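Changelog-adjacent note: as of this version, every example in the card shows the full chain rather than a window. The one below runs 320 residues end to end.
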Amino acid sequence: MRFRLPRFVTNFLHRPYHSIRVAKREGKFHIEGIGNWYMYLTDPYHLILTIPWLGFFIIVSLTYILINAIFALLYLAGGNCLNNAHPGSFADAFFFSVQTLSTIGYGDISPKTPFANIVVMLQAIVGLLVVAIVTGLSFTRFTKLTHRVVFSQVAVIAPHNDVPTLMFRMMNQRRNQILETELRVYLLRDEITTEGKLIYKIHELKMLQSHAPSLTLSWTAMHPIDVDSPLYGVTQESLVDNHVQIVVCLSGIDDIVFSAIQTQYTYAAKEIFFNYRFMDLMSISATGDRHFKPVHFHTITPIEAAEDMISQPGRGFGLV
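Full-length structure tokens:
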């Protein structure tokens, strides 16, 4: 007799994706369920790596109990095959299984028949595999590199060297260096082809500086909006009407563990401000020392106010 899962379970696990919802929230498109651990129910490896630590502990514990319960039933199927165990006692067989799988071996209960010794041998092999798998998964979860790179909450379009320029900022909140930092920026928007077909097209934006030897404090990224730029001639209204998004991809090497770091951030059309500048983060003291003030990292000011601030003594050192 074949064991079959209930129909509602199989329908859920193997449901066809006739339609995947791409919702627009706060001006950004979100693919329904992307990155959520429960979307990997049919992909156990990714499920184990993405589920919260509490869920990981529960899965490992339930799997451990299930394996021991299965072997306990095997011991019971062999009859009175264990020394010092009560005949037919599931508890004795279960806890003997736990001691065998975890190689504790108190010695109170031991196998006394060839059948029991064979089951012990099989369980010892399974125990080795379980320890290796759980150790590997735990190590993988622990060694997933995290970063503390933050992006400015908004982007601005303001003149730079007399050219309208898209600007946004990144800051490394961790007191280390991200070496060989590389930046790639993409513009996503609705476009109509010559055949009249609506597509969501991706344009790569050319940056004034796309590489840096390291990211230690802050980096202001700039894209000049010249005649060759996909943003040439845009307005705030056209950005919204064409569902524009600016996608920023930053990568580098952590100088502590020398592992690759990759992060991404998206700016919606309403998060792009025209004729604003970022407030300077760096100032120069009378002694010539430079002071970095991250408290103003997200602060923007109208161009007129920004020009007034630049003219003040002790300011005007823009960190790019």
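Structural remarks: The longest helix spans residues 114-142.
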